[in-house]
Write a structure and sequence with these properties.
Blueprint (H helix, E strand, L loop, with lengths): L1 E5 L4 H11 L4 E6 L2 H10 L2 E4 L5 H9 L3 E4 L9 H22 L5 E7 L21 H12 L6 E7 L2 E3 L5 H13 L2 E4 L5 E6 H14 L4 E4 L3 E5 H12 L3 E4 L8 H4 L8 H7 L8 H4 L6
Parallel strand pairs: 1-2, 1-4, 2-3, 4-5, 5-6, 6-10, 7-9, 8-12
Antiparallel strand pairs: 9-11
InterPro entries: Epimerase_deHydtase, NAD(P)-bd_dom_sf, NAD(P)-dependent_oxidoreduct
Protein name: 3-beta hydroxysteroid dehydrogenase
GO molecular function, one term: aldehyde dehydrogenase (NAD+) activity
Length: 293
Amino acid sequence: MRVFVTGGTGLIGSAVVAELLGNGHTVLALARSDASALVAEAAGAEPLRGGLADLDILRAGVAQADGVIHLAFANDFSSPDALAKAVAEEGAALATLGEELVGSDRPFVTVSGTPWVPGRVSTEADPLPTDGPVGGRGRAVTAVLGLASRGVRSTAVRMPRTVHNHGTGGFAGLLTGIARQTGKSGYPGDGAQRWPAVHALDAAVLFRLALEQASAGTSWHAVADEGDKVRDIATVIGRRLGLPVESVPAETYGPLGPIFATDQPSSSAHTRQALGWEPKQPSLLEDLENIQP
């Protein structure tokens, strides 16, 4: 099928585009800059110039596609206001994409994070949080899933806190960047909190499977590693960078501090059984060995 992909040149998106093209689909990729358009074109996709805020461009993309995969996000965590703006922009984009798909029975695969459930591992049956720093994303994704009653085969692939490839990406990538800036590989609290993870190439396979097979209104977990202790993640980062490893205040991580400090392991048992998804790439701790000093 012809698939309209937003965020198709990022860490996850580039893997998804390659996975789609390698399995007989064609791709129309939203490109917010000339540079991104060139990257999309080089990958074998047809670029469509525009950003998430260009709602008419989003409508045009849907009109040319048999299905939609949404991955784009501003990823500005510099301040609460910046994060809120990114969440609002994405919410408006999702609403626009969804309305254009109503009554078409076309697939609409969106992205979200895995939920956290106090005291246990989260599963695909758990609802997304709708409050807190990124609660708006949970509300927007819930609305997308609600389009199942309006003739949209809408599904959500929930991504863990770290999506990695060759030692970069996700929350672990943020820890690495902050370690380089501060001269110490830090972790909030005692570091016993657990973060789930997945390799970008494995996640890309799940996005394709959801596009091709998933029933309307369903959620799936792209989780390969159920939960690595943040202290263990920081230890590998510190060793690779030759930096001391120690606890730091949650405030070190700005608006993401409360999320960084939360224990949030997650399971993908149902996803593996129902869609036949099986991660094959290196684990997060293995992949972090690729960090260059």
